[in-house]
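Researcher: I'm preparing a figure for a lab meeting and need a structural model of a single chain. I don't have an experimental structure, so a prediction will have to do for now. The sequence is pasted below. Please return the structure as tokens so I can convert it later.
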Amino acid sequence: MKIAYFFLYSYLLLKPYYIFNSGGLQPCDIMLLLSFFFFLLASKNNKQKFYRIIMENKLFIIFFLLSFCINIIYFLQLMKFKFILSSLYYVFNFLFIIVFTYSIKYNDDFINTTDKIMKINLIMQLLIYIFSLGKYYDAQRYMGTFNDPNQFGYFVLISYAYIYIFDFVLKKNKFTKYIFFFFSIILIAQSGSTAMLLGITVLIIINLLYLLKNLPMIIYKNKNKIIIIGIFLICFCTFFLLIPVSQTKKIKIENIFIIQRVKEKISKLNNNSKGDSYSDLTIWQERGYDKIYLYPENILYGAGEGEYQRFEKAVADNEIHATLPSILFYYGIIPFMFIIGWFFSKLKNMNSKVAGVYIMLVVESFFLLNQRQTFFGGFLLLHPSYVTRYQGQKL
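Model: Understood. Here is the structure written out token by token.
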């Protein structure tokens, strides 16, 4: 079993490093395949554990099989490999869900080790940014070791979500959580991803409401920490606001790239343009939502995931950049209900103290695809029944 965990931890550490083009196998994917293989070998002597894990995730497995069948049908009709590739994403999700479930459920050290790995990953990404070793999508959108700024921003957001939950489970120092929160905002801001900024803003608002509700008691118990956080916040604001415009002679709010991005997205909400050019698209057209109401019949039986230029009525020939709406459109109402059932089975009995981080991801998921990301499925597996060993704490 040790070798299986070696490859699983290697996968988690290598996940942020994209060596080849997106859509192909990365070095980390090989680690995941090897990890699953050795987990299977180790489970030979205890098939009951493996069977229980399969049954606990049967709704996802049914969705996976149905989605695979739908994509195969469209592949046979159009002979486009993109449909097969879309199904392969779910294969890796399935592998990760199995090994992650097993590890959380049966390995007492797994959560603590994964918490350290997520923190190492964020620190490494911050150092790569500070020392100018990362890549840029264009002159202003940073993507670090990834192939796309949204991939980078999402990785930072989901890594922080893991840290947030793990620190709660393990009862670690809350100050550490705040440090990584500021690290995350710095990196997300550099990515220019408005979906990630929206998600992190939602988390800030929820936490502020919680703080206001409990403010007198919090101040009384944490006077020294509040002073330190205040100093850190001032330093952070200075870094965040001044560094991106350090080459300009006059510092103006409207010159800050991330402010420009937010203003651009807000303007697209009420854009009445017909979308003659990409810059004229409304936010809904840009995200591909118009395909849903232009081709509503696909909600019944699914459009298949690939060859998006088929939908000629849609303004843009891109995919639907939203998690649940895209699943509904690509695979139809029946597979959609299975994945929704799996989601809810993992989120029930949640502790209200950590609900904010889940709400953050839900809001973000309506503006970006998450279902292809293994870390998204793994995060949903942090289910109350898996952490009963931690003195009955509930997530």
